[in-house]
Amino acid sequence: MIADSLLKLARFAVVGFTGLCIDFGITWFCKEKLSLNKFVANTCGFTFAVVNNFILNRIWTFQSTNRLWHLEFARFAGFALIGLVLNNLLLWFFNERLHIRFYVAKAGAIACVFAWNFLSNFLFNFH
């Protein structure tokens, strides 16, 4: 049980890293090339990463065989929306209040929200 949970945590982290790359890439493109507001750009990156992470976590991390995948996605997206609110609040706090550079602040916010994302999906979504 513990070994299985640790394996899932490790896989979740690997999937999270792929999502992080997608998130940062889309955020950078939207902010720097399309000149979107930094919080809008952050939301775009986050959204693309959520779809990627759902697919990979469903198939590889949690190996879900639930035929009601749309309900799993709805829960995953709901947990992700809570994570997005936390992410944007932390990003705002780190960047605007603590004056940490935007992408460093974004990395810090992602690291803080990681625990929420894993526990919510491990305990309530893919079980």
Automatic annotation (TrEMBL):
Domain of life: Bacteria
GO cellular component: plasma membrane
Chief localisation class: membrane
Domain GtrA/DPMS transmembrane: 11-124
Chain segments annotated as transmembrane: 12-30, 39-56, 76-94, 103-124
Keywords attached to this entry: Membrane, Transmembrane, Transmembrane helix
Membrane topology designation: Multi-pass membrane protein
A GO biological process held by the record: polysaccharide biosynthetic process
One matching Pfam family: GtrA_DPMS_TM
Signal peptide: none
Subcellular location per the Swiss-Prot or TrEMBL entry: Membrane
Protein family (similarity comment): Belongs to the GtrA family.
Listed PANTHER family: PROPHAGE BACTOPRENOL-LINKED GLUCOSE TRANSLOCASE HOMOLOG (PTHR38459)
Protein name: GtrA family protein
Species annotation: Filimonas effusa
